[in-house]
Specification:
Layout: E1 15-22, E2 25-31, E3 37-39, E4 46-48, E5 51-65, E6 68-80, E7 87-89, H1 103-113, H2 118-125, H3 129-139, E8 154-163, E9 167-175, E10 183-189, H4 193-200, H5 205-210, E11 213-216, H6 220-229, E12 234-237, H7 239-262, H8 267-281, H9 289-301, H10 303-321, H11 325-342, H12 347-355, H13 357-366, H14 371-386, H15 393-410, H16 415-433
Parallel strand pairs: 2-6, 8-11, 11-12
Antiparallel strand pairs: 1-2, 3-4, 5-6, 6-7, 8-9, 9-10
């Protein structure tokens, strides 16, 4: 058996005084500086420490060493109050009260839980799932309340469904001040105006007054909640929500137009016609010359499809090229006038645009997108599926705090940094290996 010396990170003042290996486990005898004065938990009297040693070792679970569990062993110490003679246990600085594991082990459990479930982590470490849940609760107890001194400039609000068929909704409030590292602020049950106000109530009045913008979809409840709770913020409707509604409207018109045309064709003609529709859905810059010819063939059969195609391309070009809101407003007005002249059915979309015109045009001032919010929604759906269903907003909040906030703090190594570290080791051992 080889002997290897390893470095161990210890809390300040903690020392290792002995080591013993038993079977597939490692035991470290530790000690820490005892306090000179103690305060009684019963009567509150503070006096010179009157310490008594129990004479019995205490064992705490710590981090694994070479894939095997390790334990810290220390002798229990009590303080007896000189006034009421109450005997209280001294809590070491490396564990919390009523816990049989160290703070380091708690952080290790939280790291393993990122992207996993409580049952999987418990099975891997040889502990109960209830212990994992208790550790997570203790670790995230201080993370859920929002720091009153935290500066929040941009927020996003959206809802997701926790059950199939769009049932059991929850509302998510996200801090978008740093788009590279979004942070979850609150998760509340429901998707109505009350749920939005409940999310904003987690912020202090000073924080709500500092918010510059909020990003929501074209829905009345969240907009009303944000207008009421964020007095100095402006609403921004994401371009992709608007484009989705516009494309769905045009697609409905396309189906209505082609339905009558396909009814006149034979079975082979309908199959050929369906093959021509793929080019209409693609970006024109990615089409080859042969595909452009197929598209022209389609437009020759149904000229109205060319108008729909041009409307869709013009709409996309406005959001891609408009540099300010006035230019975008003029271009969209011209587009809608041309569209309603050709297809009166577009009046419904134009009414929706007029209702949310201010929020839609706010997008062109800074190009703010709700892509980060939608990404968090997808993450929440993955978490729900991985846990085989989540019905509690508080449980979903806990899981997202782990997979979003804690993952950003813990997972700091990139592929490039790991490759650079490997090159450094190769340079050190190159002479030894040759």
């Amino acid at each position: 058996m080889a002997s290897i010396t390893i470095d161990i990170d210890l809390p300040e003042g903690v020392e290792i005084t002995g080591y013993e290996r038993r079977g597939k486990g490692h035991g470290f005898e530790v000690t820490w500086p005892w306090p000179e004065r103690c305060r009684c938990q019963r009567c509150g009297h503070e006096d010179q420490a009157r310490l008594e040693q129990s004479g019995k070792p205490r064992v705490l679970r710590h981090l694994d060493v070479w894939g095997q569990p390790s334990f810290w062993v220390y002798e229990g110490v009590f303080h007896r109050c000189a006034r009421c003679h109450h005997r209280q246990d001294l809590i070491p600085p490396f564990k919390r009260k009523d816990a049989s594991y160290t703070y380091g082990f708690e952080e290790h459990v939280v790291r393993l839980l990122i992207g996993s479930t409580e049952e999987d982590v418990a099975r891997r470490l040889g502990i109960s799932a209830e212990t994992v849940g208790r550790i997570v609760k203790n670790q995230l107890r201080d993370a859920k309340p929002i720091d009153p001194a935290r500066v929040i400039l941009d927020v996003g609000m959206d809802e997701i469904s926790l059950k199939k068929r769009h049932k059991l909704y929850v509302t998510l409030l996200t801090d978008l001040t740093d788009p590279e590292r979004p942070r979850l602020l609150a998760v509340k049950p429901g998707r109505d105006e009350a749920a939005g106000r409940a999310c904003l109530a987690c912020l202090t009045p000073e924080q709500r007054a500092q918010v510059h913008s909020y990003r929501v979809d074209m829905g009345v409840p969240f907009n009303n909640a944000c207008q009421e709770g964020l007095p100095n913020a402006r609403g921004v409707t994401d371009r992709f929500h608007v484009a989705k509604l516009w494309n769905e409207t045009l697609d409905g018109l396309r189906k209505k137009i082609t339905r009558a045309h396909k009814a006149k064709l034979s079975r082979a003609g309908r199959k050929e016609f369906r093959s021509l529709m793929w080019e209409m859905r693609r970006d024109p810059s990615s089409l080859t010359e042969e595909e452009r010819q197929k598209l022209e063939k389609l437009f020759a059969q149904i000229p109205q499809l060319r108008t729909l195609y041009n409307l869709r391309m013009r709409f996309k070009a406005i959001f891609d090229t408009a540099s300010h809101r006035r230019q975008a407003a003029l271009a969209l007005t011209e587009l809608f006038m041309a569209g309603t002249d050709a297809f009166p059915e577009l009046d419904k979309f134009v009414c929706t645009y007029e209702q949310w015109q201010e929020e839609i045009l706010n997008y062109f001032e800074a190009g703010q997108s709700s892509g980060v919010v939608e990404g968090i929604n997808n993450k929440a759906r993955v978490v729900t599926k991985r846990a085989y269903g989540i019905k509690s907003a508080d449980t979903l909040w806990t899981r997202l705090l782990l997979d979003l906030d804690r993952a950003g703090e813990i997972v700091v190594g990139t592929i490039a940094s790991l490759r650079d570290l490997a090159r450094q080791f190769r340079a050190v051992f190159s002479m030894a290996c040759t």
